[in-house]
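quick one before i forget lol
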Amino acid sequence: MACLSLSAKLNEIRGSLPSLSQYPLTKYNINTRDIMRMEFVVLGELNWNMSCVTPFDFTTYFVSRFCRQVSTRHFTIMATGKIIMSVLRDVSLMHHRPSVIAAAATLVAINRNLTREELEIHIYALPLNGYLQIDDVCYCYYKLLELN
């Protein structure tokens, strides 16, 4: 119930959110004070961050890792953002994690002619301990090339 309440608050658009007292709680022996207390527990675990994670959240990190020339980093960030924006409606990319899309878009912005081996070198050089799956990054990289 606390997560439902938090979700409703996050998605509130024009103040049409029902108050906690309007939820049918008596059947479950839960009161509004308990829900509010649990909301604080959930928010604490999330470090009070309930925003949606997008590829843009990872762009600066990947540009700093992949772009060796500091003087071109601003341009690379802008180019990466443009690539991400151009493919947002492609359903075949939507099942990939935002970090994978950001890594692939950054690599496309830097070099459109990377081989799989070169992609692996870039990804394995990251201190992410296997967080990015090379097959996912390669798929996204080549799909982004195709779409741009």
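fyi The chain has a mean pLDDT of 84.
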